[in-house]
Design brief:
359 residues; mainly alpha; globular
Length: 359
């Protein structure tokens, strides 16, 4: 994932995110078929072997279209060398692709969020729990990222991520004001450590919004866009502000831009559909629901236990006009454990005209 983050700084490359990497591990088909589904041209394949404290990494860069091996290499070291190894791998990938790098991109390629391998592992695990979008997931994410910060007090991305988790927890499950106070402190520390960590503006916008400081919340979201306009997250942040302040018509454009920048980002797709519906844009709602469904289908094949994703999928079937399929999918939503999932399922049954199931 660190390699993906490094390569994503190169403007001429479109790099699939860490979720795509996790999904491939569960994929049952062939590599060429997966690459075709995900619109991937080049694929990095590797093996890691451990011998006591020693680690050997073997890497191959494949051109899926031609079937050629662009290069093969191997590196040895210890776990304490893991970040140096990842940096070298990234450089070799670029060399293999014959991509010309500008000087500032070379610098970004070498950037690391932390030198502490254990802190980084905790950060990645926290992200996995956060993506579940449940109360337990947010709580576990906070717990893990707190441990990461203890291991590396200069880990700016960890401060920003914890602020995100705290504001998400506050927004949906726990209205304790102290959560927002802590999140604001974390945002300020993240910017002190790394002034160009523009993702901090996302939790800041949420903090201001939850406090009722709506002008400041909107300005923080717009500042994020000004500083990083090609980051889907900046557009998503502005869309989220309009969404959560009951301005669905205004939320549509930034969510559409977020989807343009990252077509497979499920939260952007889901929120775009919901706001089109709330704004009375029925044609747009049906269109984007149809666009979202294949992405959700692929995701749920690989993550059948994703409760929130299953509920969203059933709702998208309804929004796309596939009412009977939506009813059948809704009836399969048994043993739901999360409050948000239960609420969204009840809303679906209400739309389907089934008040007893909704209750």
């Amino acid at each position: 994932t660190e390699l993906i983050g490094a390569l994503s700084q190169i403007k001429v490359l479109r790099v699939s995110d860490h979720q795509a990497t996790k999904e491939y591990k569960r994929y049952q088909g062939t590599l060429p078929n997966y690459a075709k589904e995900m619109n991937i041209r080049y694929f990095i394949e590797g093996q890691v072997r451990k011998f006591g404290d020693q680690t050997k990494i073997s890497i191959t860069l494949l051109d899926i279209e031609t079937g050629d091996h662009l290069w093969q290499d191997s590196m040895k070291g210890t776990m304490s060398d893991i970040f140096d190894i990842q940096e070298k791998v990234a450089e070799k990938v670029v060399e293999g692709l014959k991509v010309h790098l500008a000087s500032d991109e070379k610098k970004k390629l070498a950037e690391r969020g932390t030198e502490n391998a254990e802190a980084y592992e905790l950060y990645m695990k926290a992200r996995e729990y956060f993506d579940r979008q449940t109360k337990e997931g947010f709580q576990l994410a906070v717990q893990l990222i707190t441990e990461a910060i203890k291991l590396d007090t200069g880990y700016a991305r960890a401060y920003q991520f914890k602020a995100n988790a705290l504001t998400a927890l506050f927004g949906t499950y726990d209205r304790t004001p102290a959560l927002l106070d802590e999140a604001e402190t974390l945002c300020k520390e993240a910017l002190r450590l790394k002034p160009d960590l523009f993702k901090v503006y996302s939790p800041l916008s949420q903090i201001y919004m939850h406090r009722g400081q709506l002008a400041e919340a909107e300005e923080a979201a717009r500042e994020f866009i000004r500083k990083d306009p090609q980051n889907y997250s900046s557009q998503f942040t502005l869309g989220a502000f309009y969404n959560e302040t009951d301005q669905p018509a205004k939320a549509i454009a930034p969510y559409e831009e977020a989807v343009r920048l990252k077509p497979d980002h499920l939260p952007s797709l889901w929120n775009l559909v919901g706001n089109c519906d709330a704004a009375g844009e029925r044609e747009k709602c049906g269109h984007w629901a149809g666009v979202a469904l294949p992405h959700y289908e692929r995701h749920l094949k690989l993550h059948p236990d994703d409760e929130s994703g299953r509920v969203d999928y059933a709702n998208l079937l309804f929004y796309s006009g596939r009412t009977e399929e939506a009813q059948a999918a809704a009836m399969k939503l048994t043993n739901l454990k999360d409050g948000t999932s239960l609420y969204n399922t009840a809303c679906l049954f209400g739309r389907l005209g089934d008040p007893s199931e909704a209750l």
